[in-house]
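Field guide to reading this record: the first block holds the primary sequence, the second block holds the structure written as discrete tokens, and the final block holds curator observations. Each block starts with its own label. This record concerns SHSP domain-containing protein, catalogued under organism Salvia splendens.

BLOCK 1 — SEQUENCE
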Amino acid sequence: MKEEVKVEVEDGGILQISGERSKEQEEKNDKWHRVERSSGKFVRRFRLPENAKVEQVKAAMENGVLTVTVPKEEVKKPEVKAIDISG
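BLOCK 2 — STRUCTURE
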């Protein structure tokens, strides 16, 4: 099976994964020979969170598994200060 996959980040923080897969299966013996081919295109789109670092999105394919890594900006939490109320 052969797969071609493209990962893009579009304006507005949209992650698009598209590709095409094709499969060929062949069987033969002394009396006959059969080849079956199938193919198809696919597209998936996801809206990334606002704190995503879109310029640092990474994708890797290993053994037919696509892994997309989307780093996020750290959200700074407001500091909480203790107040002495013992008087």
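BLOCK 3 — OBSERVATIONS
The two ends are 75 Å apart (CA to CA).
The chain has a mean pLDDT of 86.
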